[in-house]
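Quick one, tokens below:
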């Protein structure tokens, strides 16, 4: 009995892997100026700009398709670590952890349009 040849990797899977890495990097870049100020920003306009950019990057990351279950777990690990740091502890029923909920929903409901789903 001969072994079936491995399926060739598709361009879509490669693009999804690159998209997740890019989305994580984009979120880290958006989060960095907030972290540098320890979340304390005196200028209201700047605060709005920085927190909006971070929230938008988080939403994009949550909605980014994953090429594999392993990549999905990687995204969940990143989002859980981020949300835990932001909320000061792991989920206990009193926190929103919205990016994780959206990411799970996107993963299992790929035919839905998530552009209308707000985070936060």
């Amino acid at each position: 009995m001969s072994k079936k040849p491995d399926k060739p990797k598709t361009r879509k899977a490669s693009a999804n892997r690159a998209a997740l890495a890019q989305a994580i990097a984009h979120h880290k870049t958006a989060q960095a100026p907030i972290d540098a100020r320890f979340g304390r920003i005196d200028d209201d306009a700047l605060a709005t700009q920085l927190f909006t950019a971070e929230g938008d990057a988080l939403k994009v990351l949550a909605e980014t398709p994953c090429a594999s279950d392993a990549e999905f777990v990687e995204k969940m690990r990143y989002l859980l670590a981020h949300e835990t740091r932001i909320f000061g502890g792991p989920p206990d029923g009193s926190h929103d952890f919205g990016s994780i909920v959206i990411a799970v929903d996107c993963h299992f409901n790929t035919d839905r349009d998530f552009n209308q789903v707000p985070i936060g």
